[in-house]
User: Which sequence fits this backbone?
């Protein structure tokens, strides 16, 4: 397998500094292993099939291998052709286990509630694949998780890969939610000519193809029900590792540089777009354009960093809430409490227990 196809990004969970900068858009190699399991369940020899694509499965088993999205698309097409199963992505999701996504899968499983897990999925989607970006569209009553192609250059991401990513996310959410949890609607931009009933049975809601966007839509009611096996101390540790890991192979991204600046300076004074742009030696307009190209906005980065620091400070339980609010740049404690409840579904005092 060539270096341009597979990239080994670290050897163990303890050594994120050993990552190597990828030259192409990549996905976690564990997707290949999941596809291999589905192929084997169809009575086929996955090793022989993947050799056709120039892949040795034993190499993929090393932690945190990444495979180019273009090559991953070939793998999906090969799997669909060999199995003759148009619903292979759903079968993969149904047998998914959290450890397949390494630290992110474990963080999902330990999330406080579905809302917390969706925020984590959006924040760290690049861990799974950097060929797409995600965003959350939130109102008082609804939350939509949206998947977007980064640019025309990343349209090589396979339709089945998109379906599998959305289905795996839903399956992961079901593991921490009540049995009656489901989206209100799921939509995909790509076309599908077959029977959509298996999709509707899997997601337990209407599923639309040839839509104007790829998204899962949720009614907010029920997203904040506490997960009985949540562990905030564990998720804080895993989040820190994921952030270090992502930063190591995204060091050149404007969003990574701004996030580092915000996390370092947020508690020491007012930070805004102008000060961040000056730190990067960019004009605010150029900085905004680069962030847009990366699927991010300054306000989103600021909100994410505030949430990150707020959860850490609240979990330590050493500072008064008024001081935490001041450190994070809120005008008063009530505004901070409202923001914290929007982030986590709980008030700061409730989150401690």
Assistant:
């Amino acid at each position: 397998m060539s270096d341009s196809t597979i990239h080994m990004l670290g050897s163990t969970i303890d050594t994120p500094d050993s990552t190597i900068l990828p030259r192409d858009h990549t996905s976690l190699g564990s997707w290949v292993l999941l596809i291999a399991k589905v192929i084997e369940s169809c009575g086929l020899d996955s090793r022989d099939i993947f050799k056709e694509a120039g892949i040795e499965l034993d190499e993929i088993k090393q932690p945190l291998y990444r495979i180019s999205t273009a090559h991953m698309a070939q793998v999906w097409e090969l799997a669909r052709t060999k199995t003759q199963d148009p619903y292979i992505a759903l079968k993969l999701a149904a047998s998914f286990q959290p450890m397949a996504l390494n630290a992110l899968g474990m963080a999902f499983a330990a999330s406080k509630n579905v809302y917390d897990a969706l925020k984590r999925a959006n924040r760290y989607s690049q861990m799974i694949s950097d060929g797409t970006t995600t965003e959350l569209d939130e109102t008082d009553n609804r939350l939509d998780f949206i998947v977007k192609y980064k640019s025309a250059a990343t349209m090589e991401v396979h339709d089945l890969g998109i379906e599998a990513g959305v289905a795996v996310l839903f399956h992961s959410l079901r593991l921490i939610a009540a049995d009656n949890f489901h989206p209100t609607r799921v939509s995909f931009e790509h076309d599908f000519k077959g029977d959509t009933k298996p999709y509707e049975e899997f997601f337990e809601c209407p599923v639309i193809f040839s839509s104007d966007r790829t998204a899962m839509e949720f009614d907010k009611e029920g997203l904040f029900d506490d997960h009985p096996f949540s562990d905030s101390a564990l998720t804080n540790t895993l989040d820190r590792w994921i952030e270090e890991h992502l930063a190591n192979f995204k060091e050149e991204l404007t969003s990574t540089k701004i996030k580092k600046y915000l996390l370092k300076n947020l508690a020491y004074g007012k930070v805004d777009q102008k000060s961040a742009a000056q730190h990067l030696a960019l004009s605010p307009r150029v900085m905004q354009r680069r962030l847009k190209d990366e699927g991010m906005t300054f306000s989103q980065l600021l909100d994410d960093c505030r949430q990150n620091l707020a959860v850490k400070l609240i979990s330590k339980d050493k500072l008064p809430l008024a001081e935490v609010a001041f450190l994070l740049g809120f005008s008063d404690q009530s505004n901070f409490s409202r923001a914290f409840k929007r982030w986590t579904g709980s008030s700061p005092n409730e989150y401690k227990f």
